[in-house]
Amino acid sequence: MNGTMKAAVMSAPFEIDIVEMPLPELRDDEVLVKVMAVGVCGSDIHYYEHGRIGRFVVEKPIILGHECAGIVEAVGAAVTKFKPGDRVAVEPGVTCGRCPACKEGRYNLCPDVQFLATPPVDGAFVQYIAHREDFLFAIPDRLSYEEAALNEPFSVGIHAAKRAGVKPGQTVAIMGMGPVGLMAVVAAKAFGAKQIVVADLEPIRLEAALRLGATHAVNIRDADPVQAVREATGGIGADVAFETAGNPKALQSALYAVRRGGKLAIVGLPPQDEIPLNIPWIADNELDIFGVFRYANTYPQGISFLSSDIADVRSLITDRYPLEQTKEAMERARTNKSGSLKVVVYPNGLL
Ligand SMILES: [Zn+2]
Ligand SMILES: [Zn+2]
Questions:
Q1: How far is the centre of ligand 1, averaged over its atoms, from the C-alpha of 62 (Å)?
Q2: Which ligand is closest to the CA of 97, given by its number?
C-alpha cells in the first residue's frame, strides 16, 4: 500500500509532534494494522519524562505506545491467519523464535525481541503499524478495542499469577494499584483467588480495585497493609503477594504479607537497584520469590478472560484523546494520578 499516515513522534523529553510519514512497508509475514486504541502506559510516561528506562535510551525520535488493538488493513504475501477487516489485539513484543529462551517457551526473555515503543523500535501512537502475524490475536466482536488494548497490562498480571502459581481459594495480596496492579486484581480473580487484599494511597485506585474484584482495599495512609492481610487470613498471611508499585516500602510490605511457604512475585521496577530485604525471614519462612518481566503465551487466555465479563475493565478508562492530542494524553496520565486510571489514545479518531 502507498500513502501517508499521521504519527505522534517524541523528539525529546516533553516534546511530541504530529508528523506525516509514509505507511510502513509490509514484509511477507506481516500484517498492516489500523490502530484503533492505544493505552498510555507507565513506561511511555517514563520515556516521555526521562528519555530512558535503564539500559533503553531514546537516541533518535521515537513513536511511543505499546498497548494497542486495531483492524487488519492489508496482509503480506505469506500471511494465512488474517484478512482485511479482522479485529485484532497486538502483542507488542516480536521475538526471534530461534534462541534458547524462545524455544523454552519463555520468549519474553528473548535477547532479540523487538518490543513496540522500546528504543529503537517505534510504537503505536500512529495510524498504522506493520506487525508479524504470529503476534496478532483475533478478538471477538463483543470485546472493544480499548479492552483488547488492556490485554497488554492484563498479560503482566496473568504472567505473575502463573509464575506464582495462584490457585483457586487462595489469598493474594497486591501492593500498588496502578493500571498493572489493577489488572493483576483481575488476573488473581481469573485464577480463582478467594480473597484479594490490595494496597495503595489513591482512593480512586482502591475504589476501582474493589469494583474489579478485590475483597479488601487498604489505604496505606491510614492502615498497615501487612496487618490487613494478617487479619484477613486469621494471622497466617497471604498465599501469594505481588509487588506492582516499584516501591521499596511496598516490596517490604509484600514480603511480610506472605505466609510461611508462600510466594512473592516482583512486578514493579523500583528506581534504585538495591533494596534492603529481611533475608532470615525469607529463609526461615521458605518464601519463593519470582521476578516478572513482561509475559509470554498470555494473549489468548487474556482475551478469553476479558471476553467472559470477568470484570468491568472498561471502567478503568478515564480519559480519551485523538492522536493529535497525544501530548495532552501523556500530560494527563503524568499529572493526574489521583483522578485518572487509564488514558487512551485513538489514532484513527475517537470511537
Ligand atoms: Zn504497558
Ligand atoms: Zn528469541
A1: 16
A2: 2
Q: Where in the chain is the domain with CATH 3.90.180.10?
A: 4-138+312-346
Separation of 111 CA from ligand 2 center, angstroms? 6
Structural fold of domain 4-138+312-346 = Quinone Oxidoreductase; Chain A, domain 1 (3.90.180)
Residues of the chain with pLDDT under 50: none
* Closest to 238 in 3D by CA, of 225, 249, 224: 225
- Cβ atoms of 18 and 71 within 8 Å: the answer is no
- Residues 66, 114 contacting (CB under 8 angstroms): no
Specify the amino acid at residue 46: H
Q: What is the pLDDT of residue 315?
A: 94
- Length of the chain equals 351
pLDDT tens readout for residues 256-283: 999 999 999 999 999 899 999 999 999 9
Q: What pLDDT is attached to residue 271?
A: 87
Question: Which ligand is nearest the CA of 45, by number?
Answer: 1
Whole-angstrom distance, CA of residue 46 vs CA of residue 268? 13
- CATH classification of 156-291, choosing from 3.40.50.720, 1.25.40.10, 3.10.20.90, 3.40.50.2300? 3.40.50.720
Q: Where are the CATH 3.40.50.720 domain residues in the chain?
A: 156-291
Cα(117) to ligand 1 centroid in Å equals: 10
Q: How far is the CA of 209 from the centre of ligand 1 (A)?
A: 18
Buried b (16+ CB within 10 A) or exposed e, 215-251: bbbbebeeeebbebbbebbeeebbbbbbbbbbbbebb
Q: How far does the centroid of ligand 2 lie from the alpha carbon of residue 284, in Å?
A: 37
- The ligand minimizing its distance to the Cα of 154 is 1
**C-alpha R_g of the chain:** 20
